[in-house]
Design brief:
The protein has helices at residues 2-33, 50-66, 81-88, 102-111, 140-145, 151-160, 175-187, 199-208, 218-227, 250-254, 277-291, 294-302, 312-333, and strands at 39-43, 70-74, 96-101, 123-132, 134-139, 166-169, 192-195, 213-217, 230-235, 265-272, 306-307. By secondary structure, it is an alpha/beta fold. The strands form 2 sheets. It has a 6-stranded mixed β-sheet with strand order 2-1-3-10-4-11, sandwiched between helices. Helix 2 packs across helix 11 (277-291) and helix 4 crosses helix 13. The longest helix is centred in the N-terminal third of the chain and has 32 residues, at 2-33. It is globular, with a radius of gyration of 23 Å. It starts with a helix and ends in a 5-residue tail after the last helix.
Length: 338
């Protein structure tokens, strides 16, 4: 009886091991066969902003690398939360990716009282695509009519005209929004916040004159800065940007009250949690290769973006550090979204 029981236990263990081996081989085979159909990259904001620009720069490169179409789908709303939630709840088969941002994965958990996804548990980080400073921009004609030539002029105007300035952003919880909230907190001025469903539509109203200021991601504003339609008052990073070297940092332009001001953005690809690690690594390697190519690298640097390409493990650590950093910014600014 004892011998029979031991043989039965050994048979069960062998079956479990064989099943695990089969599952592993099956997952490996699936990863090797991927992609067998088009891959969707969800952009959680409207077209025209930096998130959209970077996703559309990566899509053709990944299409070339894998021989299957990578296409961009915009799912805007709730500061990036709608698009992020959609990807979090998608199948983890490698056919749905998210172009996440500092907002969706660094800020929103601290800003929103209820978040429809977990930025840590619901995603498999792939790689940072690019990091960018934000830039404080105003409509050039409007600024001229108000004698605003620099940040000191802007702050003076804001204090002389309380609650009359409108601040546009790409949505609640984005770095564009939080950059403005941090600026308000440190400068002691008040502006009315108008959240849009992306940087693109917010910029249109700034260019049209119905909005007064925006702390936009540099790549989406830089064409309008160079055309003279927007006036850049400062970049929000610690150091100046090589793309606009004559534009001072907020700390430089704002003096002692703005010491240590830093509100830069980043954008990166993520997949739903449970996506095959082999698929994740394959995407990361091809993105890194594309970002290191002279054509893409020079294009991003000219727009003020710093190419990424780090490993999934490093990206996961980076997201954790960014959440801790931005939680402090949210607390300091007093911003909260219910």
């Amino acid at each position: 009886m004892l011998l029979r029981r031991n043989l039965l236990q050994l048979s069960l263990q062998a079956a479990v091991l064989a099943g695990a081996a089969f599952t592993g081989l099956h997952a490996h085979a699936q990863a090797q066969a991927w992609p067998a159909k088009p891959v969707r990259i969800v952009v959680p904001f409207a077209p025209g902003g930096t998130t959209d620009i970077l996703a559309r720069a990566m899509a053709p490169e990944l299409t070339k690398a894998f021989g299957q179409t990578f296409f961009v789908e915009n799912k805007a709303g709730a500061g990036g939360n709608l698009g992020a939630e959609q990807v979090a709840k998608s199948a983890n088969d490698g056919y749905t990716l998210l172009m996440g941002t500092v907002g969706t994965h660094g800020i929103n958990r601290a800003l929103y009282s209820k978040l429809p996804y977990d930025p840590f548990k619901d995603f498999a980080p792939i790689t940072v695509v690019a990091g960018v400073p934000n830039v404080m921009v105003v409509n050039a004609e409007v600024a001229k009519s108000r004698n605003i030539n620099n940040m000191a002029d802007f702050i003076a105007y804001a204090k002389a005209n309380p609650a009359k300035l409108n601040m546009a952003s790409s949505g609640n919880g984005t770095s564009i929004h939080l950059s403005g909230e941090l600026f308000k907190s440190m400068s002691g001025i008040f502006m009315v916040h108008f959240p849009y469903k992306g940087s693109g539509p917010a910029l249109l109203d700034l260019l049209g004159g119905s909005m007064d200021v925006m702390y936009d991601n540099l790549p989406s504003s830089i064409p309008h800065i160079k055309s003279g339609k927007l006036k850049a008052l400062a970049v929000t990073s610690i150091q100046r940007s090589a793309a606009v070297p004559d534009v001072p940092t907020v700390e430089e332009a704002g003096g002692p009250s703005m010491k240590g001001f830093d509100a830069s953005s980043w954008f990166g690809l993520l997949a739903p949690a449970g996506t095959s690690p082999e698929v994740v690594v394959r995407i990361q390697q091809e993105v890194a290769k594309a970002l290191n190519s002279p054509a893409i690298k020079e294009k991003l640097l000219a727009q003020g973006a710093i190419p990424g390409g780090n490993t999934p493990a490093d990206f996961a650590k980076f997201i954790d550090a960014e959440h801790k950093k931005w939680a402090q910014v949210v607390k300091m600014s007093g911003a909260k979204v219910d």
